[in-house]
Amino acid sequence: MEQDINDSSMVKPSQRKEVSNPIYVGREDDIKKLQRTRVAVHERKVVIFYHGGKFYALDCRCYHAGGPLHLGEIEDINGQPCVICPWHHYKITLNTGEGLYQAINPKEPSAVPKWKSKGAKQRTHRVTVDNGNVYVTLSDLTDSKDSDYYAEKYKTEKIAEK
Ligand code: FES
C-alpha cells in the first residue's frame, strides 16, 4: 500500500520507538482531583480524563473541526462514557474514540432512535499508573485517524502552566 509522503501524521520508523515511550504526565492524586487535564506527549496535545474510576487519554482536538475536548461535558451514552464536544456536540467514546450518532429508520416512523458508531475517529492513547505516577503512551501513529489532522494543526498550541 502506498502512503502519501507529505502526510504529516506519518511517523518515520526511526521515530516509532521514541513516540512509543511512556511520558510522565502528572501525579495520580492530582489528576484524580482535577478529573481532566491537558498535556503534551511528544508534542501532541492530549486530554486525560478521570471518570468512573478510570483514566482515559485522547487527542485533545475533536476529529470533526478541532473543538477543544478538554472543555467538553462527560455523559454516559448507551452504557459508554463519552465526551461531548463543546463546538457541535459530537459524542466521542472515551475508551475507543468512536463517534456516536443516533439513527432512525425512516420506514418505521414510530421507531425509537438507536445509537450507532461511525468507528474510531478520535485517537486514544494508553494511560498507565506506576507508583502514583501517571504516564501516557501514544498509540501507533502509522494507523491514520481523523483527529490526526487537528493534532498536527494545533501542535504548537500553548498549554497553560498548572
Ligand atoms: S468540532 Fe467537535 S463537534 Fe464539531
UniProtKB/TrEMBL annotation:
Natural source organism: Python bivittatus (Burmese python)
GO molecular function: 2 iron, 2 sulfur cluster binding; metal ion binding
SUPFAM superfamilies hit by this protein: ISP domain (SSF50022)
Alphabetical UniProt keywords: 2Fe-2S, Acetylation, Iron, Iron-sulfur, Metal-binding, Phosphoprotein, Repeat
UniProt-listed PROSITE patterns: RIESKE
Annotated protein name in UniProt: Rieske domain-containing protein
Domain Rieske: 23-136
Gene transcribed to yield this protein: RFESD
Database matches in CDD domains: Rieske (cd03467)
The protein's required cofactors: [2Fe-2S] cluster
